[in-house]
Design a protein that fits this description.
Elements lengths: L1 H24 L16 H13 L4 H14 L12 H15 L10 H14 L1
C-alpha cells in the first residue's frame, strides 16, 4: 500500500514537472494572482448582475476581462470619456476663439507668448 501511494505521488510530481516544462518551453509566463475587493452600491451591483447575466456572464468575470484588456491595451474599448461641464465650456471657448467669435491675441512662437505672460506677472 505504501509503495502504491509513493508511486501515485511520483506520478503527480512528474506530471507537474512535465506541465511546467511545456509552459516554460512555450514561453508562457506563470503569473501570481491577487484578490481584489471593491465596494459598490447594492442597487447598481444588482442591475449590473442582470445586465451581465443577459450577456451570458457575471459581474466578476466581466470585471476580470476588463482588467485583462486594460493590461494589454493602452486605451480599452470600454472606456468612454465624458467631459464635465467645465471642460465642455472650455472646449466651446476654444472653438469660439478659433472661429473668431471671441477675439484673442495670437502668437508666432511660444517664446513671445511666455515673454508676455511673464511681463504681465511682473506688472502685478
Amino acid at each position: 500500500m505504501t509503495f502504491l501511494l509513493l508511486f501515485i505521488a511520483y506520478l503527480i510530481l512528474l506530471t507537474f514537472l512535465i506541465f511546467y516544462a511545456i509552459l516554460y518551453l512555450k514561453g508562457a509566463e506563470i503569473m501570481a494572482n491577487i484578490n481584489l475587493s471593491i465596494t459598490v452600491d447594492e442597487n447598481q451591483y444588482q442591475h449590473a448582475q442582470a445586465v451581465f447575466a443577459f450577456l451570458g456572464t457575471d459581474v466578476e468575470s466581466a470585471l476580470k476581462k476588463m482588467i485583462e484588456r486594460a493590461a494589454y491595451d493602452e486605451y480599452p474599448e470600454y472606456v468612454h470619456l465624458h467631459p464635465n461641464s467645465e471642460t465642455l465650456k472650455a472646449m466651446q471657448e476654444c472653438e469660439d476663439i478659433l472661429s473668431g467669435k471671441i477675439p484673442a491675441k495670437r502668437y508666432t512662437n511660444v517664446h513671445e507668448m511666455f515673454a508676455e505672460i511673464l511681463a504681465e506677472e511682473d506688472d502685478e
